[in-house]
């Protein structure tokens, strides 16, 4: 089984209230002299200060039970209206779980008379590119290709660029603008002119910060500027597939929500906030993880939250501690594995300390794919970062939580899922 984008992050370069001032006219002091009553019942004192007398209704009889019931009903009505407004303000996008948790893809269109593109929505990069008819070596038989001659809203931009990724992929592209169906905004993007690999997707949609790209606004920037969303934030619910090789290669994979979060899948609708340590990647500080009564510090390096990376990537020494607890070992190929007989346990063995809470993976959630043909050894979802100066929490971790990316608040937000056993 192909391990898709095992380190796919960019190298070269995330209730309506009415104001009291507008609702009530400021009382004029010119119409009331000392002791006189002015507009709205204000009384002017001798020192010029306006007073508003409080009138007590002496005929009122308190009914605490009834008053409390009415207050709770008003609160419930308010909450229901608020949640309804929040959901209507979100731009949802369905996700497909491709190749048994290898990658999570979503369909979108760009321009007129163009096909639907399978896009990898990637918080580890910022550029949007699509394979195109300008590409000299794109495999058109395996992909939907953007053809600038078909779209009347296409506009060429006199700029070329390239992006390199951590798995060795290099993409060259010609910039253009066109209208993307998500929010119907005009988006600057790259038409691929050459690519040195043949990925399982047609496009990458970068959801990192603008500073990671080549100066163009990201999709989130344009959605906010156009008013399509009211906040520069988005959430994702990644849903795990059946265990490889059972089931179809493409299975339901969850949902993106642009403009806010879908709290209906978050336990107690509670998100925990973690400040970003940099506004490039979605980069945070994860103090530690624990396994088998051992706590291992992680705060010597930043942790990148990356939807475009398949696995969890840690230092080799940290992998050694984790797989020792699972009875596992590193194979000659460098892959960390553990006995397949230990993949079905419900025990939540690996716990990451994030936002003041522990978010954990069970023995079964540690499984990625079979390693040996005899069924004895299985590849785990935690692998070595190859000595990189960062850690990565990829899809293998994110499909166990609800992840929120708050560009306005400069924070990553995380919650426990209602559809994932804890």
UniProtKB/TrEMBL annotation:
Active-site annotation: 122, 306
Superkingdom per UniProt: Eukaryota
GO MF, one example: aspartic-type endopeptidase activity
Name of this protein: Rhizopuspepsin
Example of a GO biological process term: proteolysis
Disulphide linkage map: 340-378
Keywords of the record: Disulfide bond, Signal
Signal sequence interval, chain numbering: 1-23
PROSITE patterns: PEPTIDASE_A1
Family, per entry: Belongs to the peptidase A1 family.
UniProt key word Oxidoreductase: no
Domain Peptidase A1: 104-417
PANTHER family named in the record: ASPARTYL PROTEINASE, BETA-SITE APP-CLEAVING ENZYME, ISOFORM A-RELATED
InterPro entries in the record: Aspartic_peptidase_A1 (IPR001461), Pepsin-like_dom (IPR034164), PEPTIDASE_A1 (IPR033121), Peptidase_aspartic_dom_sf (IPR021109)
Pfam families, sorted: Asp
């Amino acid at each position: 089984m192909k391990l898709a984008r095992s380190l796919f992050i960019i190298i070269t370069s995330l209730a309506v209230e009415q104001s009291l001032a507008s609702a009530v006219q400021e009382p004029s002091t010119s119409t009331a002299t000392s002791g006189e009553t002015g507009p709205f019942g204000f009384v002017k004192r001798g020192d010029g200060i306006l007073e508003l007398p409080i009138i007590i209704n002496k005929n009122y009889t308190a009914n605490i039970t009834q008053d409390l019931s009415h207050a709770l009903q008003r609160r419930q009505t308010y909450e229901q209206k608020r949640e309804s407004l929040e959901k209507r303000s979100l731009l949802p996008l369905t996700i497909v779980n491709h190749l048994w948790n290898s990658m999570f893809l979503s369909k979108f269109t760009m321009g007129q008379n163009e096909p639907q593109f399978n896009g990898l929505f990637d918080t580890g990069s910022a550029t949007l590119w699509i394979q195109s008819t300008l590409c000299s070596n794109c495999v058109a038989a395996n992909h939907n290709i953007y053809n600038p001659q078909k779209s009347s809203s296409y506009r060429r931009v006199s700029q070329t660029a390239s992006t390199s990724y951590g798995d060795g992929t290099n993409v060259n592209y010609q910039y253009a603008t066109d209208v993307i169906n998500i929010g119907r905004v005009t988006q600057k993007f790259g038409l691929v002119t050459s690519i040195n690999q043949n990925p399982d997707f047609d496009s990458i949609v970068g959801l990192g910060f603008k500073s990671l790209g080549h100066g163009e606004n990201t999709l989130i920037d344009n959605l906010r500027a156009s008013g399509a969303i009211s906040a520069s934030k988005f959430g994702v619910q990644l849903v795990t597939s059946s265990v490889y090789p059972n089931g179809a290669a493409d299975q339901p994979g969850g949902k993106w929500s642009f403009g806010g979060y879908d709290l209906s899948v978050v336990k107690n609708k509670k998100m925990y906030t973690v400040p970003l340590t940099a506004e490039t990647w979605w980069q945070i500080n994860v103090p530690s993880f624990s396994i088998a009564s051992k706590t291992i510090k992680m705060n010597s390096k930043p942790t990148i939250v990356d939807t475009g990376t398949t696995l969890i990537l840690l230092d080799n020494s940290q992998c050694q501690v984790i797989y020792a607890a699972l009875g596992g070992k590193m194979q000659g190929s460098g892959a960390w594995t553990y006995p397949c007989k230990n993949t079905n346990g419900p025990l939540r063995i690996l716990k990451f300390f994030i936002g003041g809470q522990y978010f954990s993976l069970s023995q079964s959630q540690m499984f990625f794919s079979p390693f040996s043909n005899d069924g004895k050894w299985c590849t785990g979802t935690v692998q070595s970062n190859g000595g990189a100066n960062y850690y990565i929490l990829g899809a293998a971790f994110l499909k166990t939580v609800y992840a929120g990316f708050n560009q306005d608040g400069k924070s990553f937000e995380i919650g426990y899922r209602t559809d994932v056993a804890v």
